[in-house]
Amino acid sequence: MTNFNYKLTMILCAFFLFAQNSSTFSQVIAHWDFNSGTSNVLPDVSGNGHDGVIENGSWETDHLCFNGVNSEVNVESDPSLSGMNQLTVISKVKFNELPEVGEYSRIVGVYDEFNGFNSSTNQAYNLGIDSTVEGIRLIFSVRTGSSTGYDGINLYSLIESFPINEWIEIYALFDNGYMALYVDGELIIEEDFYANANINEADSPLTIGYTIGTNNNNDPLNTHLNGCIDDLKLFNIIVPPGLVAYYPFNANANDESGNGNDGTVNGATLTTDRFGNENSAYNFDGINDFIDCGHNSSQVFSDQLTMIAWVNTASQSNVRFIFSKWGGANDNESFYLALNENNIPYGKINFTDTQEIVPQSSNSIETGNWHMLAMTYNRDSALYYVDGVIVDTIYDNREILSGTLPLMIGDDNGNNLRFSGKIDDCRLYNIALSFSQINSLYDITTNVDFNTLENNNIKLFPNPNNGEFNIKLQNNIENDIYIYSLGGRLIYRNKVKNFCELKLTSLNKGIYILKIISKDRISTEKLIIE
């Protein structure tokens, strides 16, 4: 997919910017972990109160099974469950039987077809599979404010050799008309429908394991899942695939990935981040300060890994751990980021054969300055980055040892190799981000190059004004236009050629980011509404 790297990079950057600028970053709509239910109640562990009522389900260890006939979970209708302009659905599911040709199996949805295919007030979104003569299709359907019934946005992907009796993880993303589906971290299909619209505000209940409905003959539509679900999450933002833990340190050490890897602060104190924002990073004294983020089932690694942390180190003459799952028995250690006694950044990855690799920089970093350190591994090579630049490459193809030691910030587990200085924006993925994604994450958070329109023969006028702008392009080719809030939320997108009128009078006064992507360049400018 030619545009995928760019689109995923923008998703990563928007997620970072939104979290970085939100002091109350909490975008989990609901989280059903299937670990703490009773015979007829499925608790929403997000704290948002979207508990489900179970009918005819069968509890097994840490998951709920559905019989394909009348097993279902119903969650009371609530405005927060629909009406968003961004949606991420993450589900671990196992299909015991696949539907017959012409039938469906639904995982989750706010989607009542019983009240009519064309009743958009009852339909928002649904995720599941159907069976055709060609095979099994993964389906993600969304109804927007301008669509009704089957005229909405539907993303289909035919899956060869669809797995039966095997757990898979499905990611479904909707971002203002851009949609994508992943299975086990692999992009299956993506498409940009350029809808620029919110998902419908539906008054239907949310259903798990089926959707309410009838077919064209008004007969009951059997969409019941024959299989099991373990862990289901809904977000009203785009959560990057593979994100295991994220710590923007917005006045706390909470994990904002939604995976529950919250940190317990031991001695470290809140301080200013690299943008000068107060209470947005942590300072560690190098003696007894650390953050313990524990271990849970989301911290599973095998073939891929990405670790990222921003550091501002103080002077210290010993090894300092930054971000780690390390310490103790070698057969339980996984990986870490650290600085050695000469202030040289390095990392380590342990494999299932208990052999290790140590990617590292050949140069030290300055004390008192912020630097972004990153390490990736994809069962082909390990790359180490300093400030978006690759400084070391080690080729290897072994499996990562996925240990159960706690995830630590500012320390390892038991050796007291504690960091001295500031740490911010720690992120952990179970995928390997690409060079362009790492590089763009560094660029967009440090030195975004604005005022590039005129250099690329693009004119924006008048700017600033009350929300009515003109864009004149002289490249005579189709361009993609994106407008983001300073918080990173995509609020407008379109395709234009030669000339465009932007009517943004409905937006609040303030500064926005305009990006124009053409065939061979990206132009960026601040757009100001007075």
Structure characterization notes:
This protein has 530 residues and is mainly beta. The protein has 3 domains: 28-235, Jelly Rolls (Sandwich); 243-444, Jelly Rolls (Sandwich); 454-529, Immunoglobulin-like (Sandwich). The protein contains 2 helices and 38 strands. The strands form 6 sheets. Strands 1, 4, 5, 7, 12, 13, 14 and 16 form an 8-stranded antiparallel sheet that branches. The protein has an 8-stranded antiparallel sheet with strand order 2-3-6-15-8-9-10-11, with no helix packed on it. Strands 17, 19, 20, 22, 27, 28, 29 and 31 form an 8-stranded antiparallel sheet that branches. α1 (4-20) packs parallel to α2 (435-444). The longest helix has 17 residues, at 4-20. The two termini are 39 Å apart.
> Architecture of the largest domain in CATH?
Sandwich
Helix content: under 10%
Query: Quick one: overall form?
Result: globular
Return residue spans where pLDDT drops below 50 for at least 5 consecutive residues.
1-6, 21-26, 147-151
* Helical run tally: 2
